[in-house]
Amino acid sequence: MTDAWLNAFGAGLNIGVDAPTAVVGNGLGNSVGGSVVASGDQHVGDSGHYNGFGPVNVAVDVPTLVAGNGVGNTIGGDAAAFGGQEVGGQDHSFHASTPFGGVNVAVETPTLIAGNGAFNAIGGNVEAVGLQHVADHGFLHA
User: Fold this and answer.
1) 95: CB partners within 8 A, 6+ apart
2) CA–CA dist 41, 132 (Å, integer)
3) Which sequence spans correspond to the domains of the chain?
4) Of 5, 70, 131, 135, whose CB neighbour count within 10 A is largest?
5) What is the mean pLDDT of residues 31-59?
6) Contact at 8 Å (CB) between 56 and 13?
7) Within the chain, what is the greatest distance between any pair of CA atoms?
8) CA pair distance 82, 112, nearest whole angstrom
9) What are the tens digits of pLDDT across the range 59-111?
10) CA–CA dist 58, 36 (Å, integer)
11) Burial class (CB in 10 A: 0-12, 13-18, 19+), 12
């Protein structure tokens, strides 16, 4: 939340980049005894009151997993790349001087490359999952 005097200048500019990366068990004859996970979770945007032009929120969430590629590699559990983000504040945007609201931009690309090659084994699930929520939950008074 910003100080009240900052709202006169159009408060709220939030930028977030979340890029968890796991590179595990690639090559020849590697063994990973459990799960391999790259997990990203971010919340970009304030919960506050804005005047002027209001918030601008930008977020990039790129969980990447590269595991068990090559020859004879074993992953004993799940291989998963999870991305979760919420972009835009839970605000009450009182825009008395202008009808402009929040601008929200989000990019989410969970990527998983696992078990490619010869004689590789993954003992659990293989998942690349992205969950995102992009928008303000505020109300606008022009």
Assistant:
1) 50, 51, 52, 53, 54, 101, 140, 141, 142
2) 9
3) 4-134
4) 70
5) 75
6) yes
7) 65
8) 9
9) 888 999 999 999 999 999 999 999 888 887 655 544 444 445 567 788 888 89
10) 28
11) buried
Q: Is 142 exposed, middle or buried (0-12, 13-18, 19+ CB in 10 A)?
A: exposed
User: Residue 70 pairs with which residues in a beta bridge?
Assistant: 27, 117
- Give the chain's end-to-end CA distance (angstroms, integer): 21
* Residue 72 falls in which region: left (phi positive, over 0), alpha (psi -120 to 50) or beta: left
Do 28 and 72 contact (CB within 8 A), yes or no?
yes
Alpha helices in 9-140 (DSSP H): none
